[in-house]
User: What shape does this take?
Amino acid sequence: MAKVSCRLVPDQTPEEIQALLTAHVERVKPRGVTVSVTSLHGGRPWRAELSGPLFDAARGALATAFAREPVITGEGGSIPVVGDFQNILNAPVLLVGFGLPGENAHAPNEWMSEENFVKGCRAIAALWDELGAP
Assistant: This one.
């Protein structure tokens, strides 16, 4: 048995990707081989809103903690409930990471720079200050 994980992007649905993957596997399988594709979960892709009070407060907090303007980059992740928070609760969502790519997040020998940990804590404290400011 082989397992395939698909990372979806906004404007894709788990149902659409499962149908496309199933059709592809059926098309390329060797003659006489039986295959099946089973969905293990169906989290919906989500993309952050890069404007508004929450995002502006986060930019300010990050600039305060790290003493430079943040560089905004797109990152992938699999937290299915994030889109639900925004869509069902109509609540803005902000995800901020403080780890670096080489830190092996969620893998053996995962680690995090102490400097980024401390500055990350300062950034979150500054975010609360930004959000609480009149």
Q: What stands out?
A: The CA atoms of residues 38 and 122 lie 44 Å apart.
